[in-house]
Write a structure and sequence with these properties.
It is a single chain. The chain has six helices and five strands. The protein is an alpha/beta fold. Strand 4, helix 5 and strand 5 form a beta-alpha-beta unit. The longest helix has 16 residues. The model has no long low-confidence stretch (mean pLDDT 92).
Length: 127
């Protein structure tokens, strides 16, 4: 969900990686208790998806593309995994932005994905 939240940061250079713009739809298919994919500092191992949480995300989603002007189009880039079986919002991203690239990875980034795709794009954006 980081890509969706990063997209809302207006006025900053940003790279969205496999952004999911309709988190509420995905979450509604997974109501109930879910395991965290990564260990948490507080030792929690699971979280709960509720209808009210899905509704809150839906409210964010409904306004996420407001205020996109030429500057935002130039500041915002996205990387999409060619083998992402979880989310594919590239077509929707391209309706609002100009800079979409792919990388030969999946939805969750590996060290190699970061090293070979994210870091070089970040360096190019900083020039």
């Amino acid at each position: 969900m980081g890509g969706m939240f990063a997209q809302k940061l207006r006025g900053y250079k940003k790279i969205l990686v496999n952004p999911a713009f309709h988190v509420s739809e995905f979450m509604r298919k997974n109501l109930g208790v879910q395991p965290f994919l990564n260990p948490r500092e507080n030792k929690e191992t699971e979280y709960k998806i509720t209808e009210s949480l899905c509704d809150a995300y839906l409210q964010l989603e409904e306004k996420q593309f407001e205020g996109i002007d030429h500057l935002e189009q130039e500041l915002t880039w996205a990387l999409f995994g060619e083998n992402d079986k979880l989310v594919n919002c590239k077509e929707e991203f391209c309706k609002y932005y100009n800079h979409a690239l792919t990388f030969p990875g999946e939805h969750r980034l590996t060290f190699e994905d970061i090293k070979d795709s994210v870091v070089p794009l970040g360096k190019a954006m900083l020039k």
